[in-house]
Amino acid sequence: RERERERERERESLSSSSQEDLTLYLFNNRNDGNVKEPHQLYLVTLIEYLNDESLLLCFSKMLSPSSPAQKSLAEEDSSGSDAGSEVGLEPETDRFGFIVTNGSTAGFVGPPPELVRQREAKWINIISQWDRMLLKKTSKVKVQCQKGIPASLRAKCWPLLCGASDKMKQNESLYQARKPNMLTVSLDEQPALQSWVDVIERDLDRQFPFHEMFLSKDGHGVQAAWFVAGAESAYTQYQPEEGYCQAQGPVAAVLLMNMPAEEAFWCLVQISEQYLPGYYSPLLEGVLFDAAMLTWVLKRTCPAAHKHLQRHGVEPLMFATDWLMCLFTRHLPFNTLLRVWDLFFCYGVRVLLQVAVVLVRRVLGRAEQRKQCQGQMETLEKLRGVREEVQEEDDAFIAEVCSVQLSARDLEKQTEKELEKWRKDRPSSTFDPRGRCQGYRMAWARARHNEEERERKAREKGNLSIPLARSASTLSLSPSLLHKRWKKGGKANTGDWEGGKKVVRHLSMGAKEDWKSWNDINFKEVQGVQEEEDVVESKLTGQSEQKEAKEIDEIQNIPTVQVEETVTVKEEIEQVETRVSEREEKEIDEIQNIPTVQLEETVTVKEEIEQVETRVSEREEKEIDEIQNIPTVQLEETVTVKEEIEQVETRVSEREEKEIDEIQNIPTVQVEETVTVKEEIEQVETKSL
Amino acid sequence: MAGGSVSECKEYLFKVLVIGELGVGKTSIIKRYVHQLFSQHYRATIGVDFALKVINWDSKTLVRLQLWDIAGQERFGNMTRVYYKEAVGAFVVFDVTRGSTFEAVSKWKHDLDSKVKLANGSPIPSVLLANKCDQKKETSNNTALMDNFCKETGFLGWFETSAKDNINVDEAARFLVESILANDKGLPYEESNGDRIKLDQETVAAESKSGCC
Questions:
Q1: Rg of chain A over CA atoms, in angstroms?
Q2: What is the DSSP track for A487-538?
Q3: How far apart are CA B180 and CA B177, in angstroms?
Q4: Which among A165, A352, B23, B141 is least buried, having the fewest CB atoms inside 10 angstroms?
Q5: pLDDT at residue A433, as a whole number
Q6: What Å distances lie between residue A331 and A206, B130, B170, B180, CA to CA?
Q7: CA distance A160 to A155
Q8: Comparison of pLDDT for B170 and A190, the residue scoring more
């Protein structure tokens, strides 16, 4: 009884803090109280998080009348923008904020809400233990990036993946110091910047003319873009040779549509400096180099198209310059673009080359297509119109991209070769693409390295009191706990909303200290739990060592799910499934508990599941060794079958990479009987007591 | 015109570059010329863009004009060699409302002449476009100055244009194509049947009116 009550209290405290917790994920670092910041984005983020499309629609309607953008559009009605004239006072926007015209993405429906939620949970789990995730050898992040980062979490994930989060922390003072400058002091007062401010101004409203953020010069999108540009000017004062490159405009625009200005700025910095050095520099050496790389990749992966291009004197620089420099912002449907960027932040420049190959294939892959474009101009015209070849087919497109054979090692080798040629042709060039960041692992490693450097320097100075920059992960909750909290939080929508608001207000008043201390408290509170879990983990490790010998053969035999290869997925899944079920049979004795839940009434059952889970995890803590299976919830068939297969895949591929001792979970899907949930709970209870 | 059967139609393919500082209206001019459209909302050209204009020059001549719209930002200069290849004519554009863009004209012309030449080694014919003339503030007449500038820097001529108000765009194009055709004597794109085009000089003079030297 005592324990029951304790648990009750614990749960209450968890659910109440989970609201703030979540909001903090989404509102992180937006505590400056500046109204000009694109607060709209937070709301979109939140609303998308709540997965309520109708709310989103309401929201964009709500915004419309008050936005100066729309007014000016009405005035400008006849001035000839291609689509503007069809739009009334309140332009309808799609889920991305684009004004709806013929052929836009209004009809696009994302993955089903349940799936989105599961993915969100996985990502929150990943985010919450980011450093640990990177120390382990796990493909979790990659797998999730391939599946697509949920829209609600891109604002958090992209900066995290590319190292912008770290950079932002390290340079807090730089940006903060510059910020008021950029917003209040007009740039005329800084004549040194004026020339390229000209350039930027000319560009800003040209990027995405039909996105509501960019509708007018007063629109806050443009303000924010200005802001990024301005911030970048601050930055380029330290790197004056870089300056602003036109192609950064569209990239900044897409970043701004997905996150607040400061994050967007640091993402842009990371892309320009780490992921794609030389892409935006005065000599554009990175682009020239990658154009040569693309020639090689094309030759390797689609020789017929490559031959065609050569025959007609079409060089990658003629069609791929803007593909590469703008990261395909102009050549893919918006959602496909976001998916491609998910991959890009994960793997780096390799993805750009892979996508380029896919696009070339789409245009020139078939013999009859090649026959149709006899001549340089015809070929170029086709390549330029490549967007028509990509429909709303995100998953298929991403699969196609991943199937282009180009490993990191291939890329490295060819980079060496290409660099040799490069240096022969351009003896004076100091460009060296070998050090560029090949994805999130490298970005993370570099951030760690920089941090260590800074600490070392600080120590040399004798200043030991310098505070350690604490990354998000050290504040993390244990994954299972967080998962529960998240679930709990997701249920009480209105409550969350209220709580969220409160936090927003709180943060926007600039109460940064409060915010920090809240985190610290939470950190201490949670640390205990996390440590406990670690203990459990290590004990389990001990036991699994015995099994290791037995299992190792089996594990090695589990077919590799290599997403980089074009394997027929179905076959694989079947194989995986059979293996898993084989193991099940062998281990059936050890398995004591597989609660099977059939979902009939979503809400009530969910609650019950949570209870079951709590109990099960309690048992874990008590070191009940034989438990290997965490209950898997079978939802309505449509969604789950797919997702489960994905889970199996994920787990299997994880296991390959992980040391075997970490293996604890094999999701088992057993739907044999329709057992009532209550019965099950009772079972669990009796066993756990 | 030269005698011969009516069915003898000659086809030419010309690659023409459109260059100049960023934001001077290169894309707008091309869009106006090719699609008869104008918008404030053209996005910045990254790298290069293309458009094709088919001209029924006369009853026996078809000209396919490939317009290469080259990014204006200076740093793309590192790529222009690839884009200039095999061009036979060029427009250099500047913005009459921004003096700096005119100052850059010589730079562009030099870049052009250093990277591409006709088969006989002479520079490719180029025409200077003073764009956005609809926004011109002062009405001072500097025709003489401009004529002189063209002579010095090697332009065939210059036009005040407005893509917005559709001023002189077609005329400028016609003027350039004429000189390309003149240069092209002996080098028709499609296999020649020996029937050369004789340019009607009167038409040239009549059509290339304002501001041309």
A1: 26
A2: HHHHH-HHHHHHHHHHHHHHHHTT-HHHHHHHHHHHHHHHHHHHHHHHHHHH
A3: 5
A4: B141
A5: 92
A6: 16, 32, 31, 34
A7: 9
A8: B170
Question: Among the residues of A129-219, which ranges form H helices?
Answer: 130-135, 140-147, 154-162, 164-170, 172-184, 191-204
- Which residues of chain A does B44 touch, with a Cβ-Cβ cutoff of 8 Å? 202-203, 206-207, 246-247, 249
Report the C-alpha gap between A632 and A625 in whole angstroms.
Answer: 19
CB A665 within 8 A of CB A628: yes
Cβ contact A99:A83 at 8 Å: yes
pLDDT at A610: 60
Residue A210: CB atoms within 10 A of its CB come to: 20
For residue B127, what are the contacts with CB-CB under 8 A and spacing of at least 6?
A: B89, B90, B91, B92, B155, B156, B157, B158, B159, B172, B175, B176
CA pair distance A136, A129, nearest whole angstrom: 11
Place of tokens 């390959």: A656
List CB contacts of A623: < 8 A, sequence separation 6 or more: A536, A539, A540
ipTM for this prediction: 0.82
DSSP-derived secondary structure for A218-274: TSHHHHHHHHHHHHHHHHHTTSTTT---TTHHHHHHHHHHHS-HHHHHHHHHHIIII
Residues B178 and B204: beta-carbon distance below 8 Å: yes
* A449: its two tokens: 């390295």
Among the partner residues B39, B48, B66, nearest to A377 by beta-carbon distance: B66
Which tokens in the block code for residue A65?
């009348």
Q: Of the spans A97-101, A116-120, A131-135, which averages the highest pLDDT?
A: A116-120
- pTM for this prediction: 0.62
The one-letter amino acid code at A47 reads I
**Other CB atoms within 10 Å distance of the CB of residue A485:** 22
The closest of A106, A109, A138, A137 to A122, measured between CA atoms, is A138
Residue with tokens 């028709």: B188
- Residue pointed to by tokens 């050290």: A474
Q: A-chain residues within 8 Å CB-CB of B40?
A: 79-81
The nearest alpha carbon in chain A to B24 belongs to A202
> Are A247 and A325 a contacting pair, CB within 8 Å?
yes
Q: Which of A428, A472, A469 is nearest to A451 (CA)?
A: A469
Distance CA B66, CA A220 (A): 39
When pLDDT is averaged across residues A159-178 and rounded to a whole number, the result is: 77
| Residue A91 near residue A73, CB atoms below 8 Å | yes
Distance CA A435, CA A588 (A): 50
For residue A534, give the amino acid letter: D
Query: Does A284 contact B at CB distance below 8 Å?
Result: yes
The size of the A-B interface in CB pairs under 8 A is 84
Q: Where do runs of H (alpha helix) occur along A82-163?
A: 113-128, 130-135, 140-147, 154-162
Q: Cα–Cα distance between A651 and A144 in angstroms, integer?
A: 12
Contact A205 B41 (CB under 8 A): yes
Q: How far apart are CA A212 and CA A180, in angstroms?
A: 25
For the record, the structure tokens of A540 come out as 């389990």
| Rounded distance between C-alpha atoms, residue B56 and residue A116, angstroms | 57
Average pLDDT across chain A, whole number: 64
CB atoms within 10 A of CB B115: 15
What DSSP designation does B76 have?
G
Residue found by looking up tokens 């995405």 in the block: A208
Q: Give the residues across from A142 on adjacent strands.
A: none
